[in-house]
Structure formats: C-alpha cells, structure tokens
C-alpha cells in the first residue's frame, strides 16, 4: 500500500497540517487520521474537508471519495492545532483576542479587564456574534441590519478598549502614551485621575466612528426616491404588427398547373394543395362543407369518373374485339366453303372432260374456246371473291379504328371537363388558403395585442403592489433604524455613566492619597509623589474589585514606616488639587462639552455589527443575549 503526504490547510486561520495517509484512503479516513494527529476528537463532528479549486477557492467534497492524486485539501471547523491545557493557557487579553471567533474565551487579564471597566463595557460584549444568531425567526434584512449595527459598535468598543489598555501599560511603565485622535497638541496627556476637569486621556468620550458611518449609510439607503428608482421596469410590449392588418406576405403557388399537365397531374396538385390547406390552423372552423365538396368533386369524384370511363372503354374494346373475331371466323368459314366448292367444280369439270372425249374437229375447236371462257369466268369469280374478302377484313379494321377514335374523343372530353372542374376547385382552394393565412395572422396579432394589454395591466398592478411592498418594507426598515438609534443612545448613556462612576472612584482614591500625604509628610516630596502616582492605579483597581471604601484604599497604600514623621501643619493655602467638574461632585451623571450621550439625527446611518454591548460592568451591564432578542 502506497502512503502519501497530504497537506490540510485551514481556510480561515491559514494553519497547515501534514498527515501521511494511504493513497486509497477515503475522505472519512483522512478526517479520522487528522483528528488523531491534532488531538481533537470533536473534529469528526464539526470539521469538514474541502477540495481546493483551480481559482484558489474551496468547495465541499463527499466523504466517500478517495484521496487519489490530490495532495492539498482545505478544512473548516475547529482549529488544526492541539488544544492548550488549562494550566498552560494564559488569560485572554485584548492583544491576542480573536475578534471573529464566536467561541473565544472571555477576556480575563487584569489590564484588559481594567480597560473594559474604565470604558464601561463588559468583557462578554466584545465576543463576536455571527450573523446566523440574528436570523432566528427574523427577516434576513432586519437580521443583517442588527448584525451590522452591533458589529460596528463592537469594533468601535474594541478599538477604544485596546487604545485604553495601551495607555494603561504606558502609564505603568512610566512612558508617555500616544495622543488620542480627539486630543489637541496643547493638552498634556493626563493619567486616569490626574486632571479632574480635563476630559482627556483614558476617560475621554468614545468616538463611535463606525456606528456614525453605519447610520449615515443606512439613511442614504432609506431614501424613498432612490429605492423606487429601478425597483420596477416599465412594461415593453412584445407584440408585432397591427391588430387590424395582416403580417402575411401572401400565398404563392409553388407547383402550378402547366400546359402539358393532364387531369391526373392537376388532380394530384389539387390534392396536395388541399392537404396544405388542411394543415393550416383553424382551417376546419370555416367553410368545412365547401371544402369537403371541393375535395369530393375535384379529387374523389374525378378518380371515380376516370375509373368508370376507363372501365366502360375497356369493356367496349373487349366487345368490339369479340365482334371482330366473330366476323373473321365467319369470313374464314365462307372462304373455306367457296374454296371447297371451287375444288368440287374443278373436279367435276375434270371428270366431265375425261368422260366426254372430243371426236370431231369442231368440238375440239369449241372445247378450246369453252376452256378459255371457263378459265376467264373462274378468274373473275376469284377476283370477286377476293374483293369481298378484303372488304370484310377492311370492315373489321375500320370497326377497330372507329372504336379507338371514339374512345380517344371521349377521353379528351373527360380530360377537358375534369381540367375545368379541377382548375376551378384549385382556384377556390388557393383563395381559401390566402384568406386563412391572413385570418390567422390577424387573429395572432389581435391575440398578441390583447395579451399585451393584459400584460400591461398586470405589470401596472404588479408595479403598484411592488411599490406598496417596498414602502411597507421601507417603513419597517426605518422603524428598526429608529429603534437602533434609541438603543445606541441608551447604550452610550449607560457607558458614560459607568465611566463617570469609575472616574469618581479614581478621584476619590487620588484625594485619599493627597490626604495621606498631608497627614504623613516625607522629607522627599518627589519620592512621595512618585510612589503615589505609581500605586494609584493599583489602589483603584483593588478598590473596584473588593468594593471597599476610600479608607480601605488609604490603608492599603504602600508607604514605608521610615516616612512616618510628625505632621507639619502649614498655615499657607495650597491650590495644587485637581480641577473638579460639576458632574463629579453629584451622584447623577451629567453631560460635558464632549457629551457621549448624543443621538444621531435623521442623516445618520447604519453600519453592521453582531455583538449586543452591555455597559458599565456588574449591575449596570446589559445582558448581551437579552439585548439580541
């Protein structure tokens, strides 16, 4: 058995695995070997082997097919690397977070969780939700609308959270973080609670640019004139010609009756023309009786008359021939009797001469004359007999000739009469053919015209119905957009409130540190300030996780016992405390000059998103799946 190496390439993650399988192995066996190679038993259920097309795309392949000469296959489903053990797997963070994997773990690294907390977002809201989850019991257009919106919101949130995490890392490392796109050059980048009234740095308002673009595009798409344009095309009639005129070019006889044609040829051509006429559509609806009469007289009756005539002529010729034979027999009998009588007479004369001998000279002389006269008369009798005999034979020949002449005259008369009748029938048939062709053409034009009118009316009704349907769908679409705008405004308000709560706690921690610094002064103010700035983030994070008070944060501050010195009460005023906004001193959330609670106007549009974001962490977060419903 020949074994070959097969490359399995993941279509989305671009992972490749090389496995060795028999050349005669099936795709199902290849999946089993691949599952054993990557140590993923679930691959047999969720994985799918694909074939690579010449253009680089992938298509399904039956599991019963053999590997054959193929050496590269595609794959989709689970990853192609062995699963990482739980005790080796680091906590998920925003840096290595798979944006489009619905099965990705929830972010659990401290910095990423802190960035989400400062942004007012629950880490679960950053997980990708595919479009199929929105299509359950929802119209596809509405599902795509919600998917685009929440995906745009998720992308904006993910971008801001990552930027906030980078800022936190930079602050921890003592570096100067990069300026925000909304910050100006004259504003120094501040820490979390470094500038109380300055809405810059990590706590600046979110820039939902993808959501704004989403609303802007959807508003342009919802222009009713733009939707109506091209929705239905004008009706174009396909009818040809007029409903009152014929498109027929006329009938042309392809096989006319020629001068040398007899009635038989004319009858055959008439029969062909009648057959062509009977093949025309609707020909049997009109003058059916006349057509049958024409066919009967022109073809059937002509054949019957011709047969009867030929039969009578044949019988007459038979009788004439029998009569001629009878006459010839009678002539032969009479001729035989005459010849027999002639022989008898000759024999009698011979016997008479023998019995009567000439005795005298006178008798001898008379006998010579008598013999001559007798021979003369005998010759005359033979001539008369031959004349009569020839006359009888002449009569027979004349009878035959007259018979044939009469039959030829009757045949010519029959042909003449038949040609006249057949010609008239043929002309009538040609007129009927022309009329039928024109009638069919006009009927077709009239039917086409009527169908065009009905089609035009139906197209108008369909156009009105389509416009009503479009308007109904447009109203539903606009209603969903307004609902998304309200949802977006609520989400932005909840996130802004959560950010303000985090800011208040951060400012409280900062004030606690300042109070401790005043209560326990240090000979090195610079060191004391640096220690406070270094540990403020850790103290605020600990306070948020343990939900402790400012006193507990203060007790947890890492100060050295060597710095405990008697408090020095200063009599001069100090104005180095941060500026405070009006909203930071009240329990309710307020709106700054860069308010994130703005709602888009009618010109705003929609992009498309998947994850329903919940805001503010803990008690203020909105359940993602509940918002999806």
Largest sheet: 5 strands, mixed
Indicate the overall shape: elongated
Q: Unreliable stretches, pLDDT < 50, 5 or more residues? A: 179-200, 526-629
Strand content: under 5%
The percent of residues in helical segments reads 55-70%
Q: What is the ordering of alpha helices and beta strands? A: EEHHEEEHHHHHHHHHH
Class based on secondary structure composition and strand pairing: mainly alpha
Q: How many individual helices?
A: 12
Number of strands: 5
Report on this structure.
The protein is mainly α and 629 residues long. Among the domains are: 3-76, Roll (Ubiquitin-like (UB roll)), CATH 3.10.20.90; 263-480, no CATH class. It has helices spanning 27-38, 43-46, 110-119, 140-172, 209-221, 224-228, 263-279, 288-355, 361-519, 525-546, 550-555, 624-628; strands at residues 3-10, 16-22, 48-52, 58-60, 72-76. The protein has a five-stranded mixed beta sheet with strand order 2-1-5-3-4. Helix 7 runs antiparallel to helix 8. It is elongated, with a radius of gyration of 63 Å. Mean pLDDT is 75; it is low at 179-200 and 526-629.
Quick description:
The protein is mainly alpha-helical. 56% of the residues lie in helices and 4% in strands.
Layout of secondary structure:
Elements: E1 3-10, E2 16-22, H1 27-38, H2 43-46, E3 48-52, E4 58-60, E5 72-76, H3 110-119, H4 140-172, H5 209-221, H6 224-228, H7 263-279, H8 288-355, H9 361-519, H10 525-546, H11 550-555, H12 624-628
Parallel strand pairs: 1-5
Antiparallel strand pairs: 1-2, 3-4, 3-5
Helix pairs in contact: 3-4, 4-5, 4-9, 7-8, 7-9, 8-9, 9-10
